[in-house]
Amino acid sequence: MLNSNTSVLDRRVTITDDHQTFPYEAGWALEATWFVQTEGDHPALSLRPQTSPDGLAWVDIGPAVELGVDTMISRIPATHFGGWLRLVVEGATATSPATVLTHLVLKG
Predict the structure, then answer these.
(1) Domain ranges in the chain?
(2) Residue 59 burial (10 A CB sphere; 0-12, 13-18, 19+)
(3) What is 4-107's CATH number?
(4) Strands, E, within 19-80: which ranges?
(5) What is the chain's pLDDT, residue by residue, as a tens digit (108 residues)?
(6) Least C-beta-crowded within 10 Å: which of 14, 34, 52, 63?
(7) Nearest Cα to 48, choosing from 6, 80, 18, 82?
């Protein structure tokens, strides 16, 4: 029987600079999917999933996913990752902030 876990990493967080979710231990999972939702107007955002063997040193998992100004939700899947996961969100500034809601869904 497969296990599944959904965690809220950011709940309506307003970001004004580059942002990283807290590291999440996911070594038991076979696949991960981030869902990033925005509220209101926002700049184009670049979403980069990252993995780590120890939660300290990070490496990108594949290419960045772009969330355009007209897009309110994006899905970023990942497989074949290390024990820890996080998501880097880039593109928000003090003059062009973004309010985000980030979920991480793990299955294994």
Answers:
(1) 4-107
(2) exposed
(3) 2.60.120.380
(4) 19-20, 24-25, 31-39, 45-52, 59-60, 65-67, 73-79
(5) 789 999 999 999 999 999 999 999 999 999 999 999 999 999 999 999 999 999 999 999 989 999 999 999 999 999 999 999 999 999 999 999 999 999 999 999
(6) 63
(7) 18
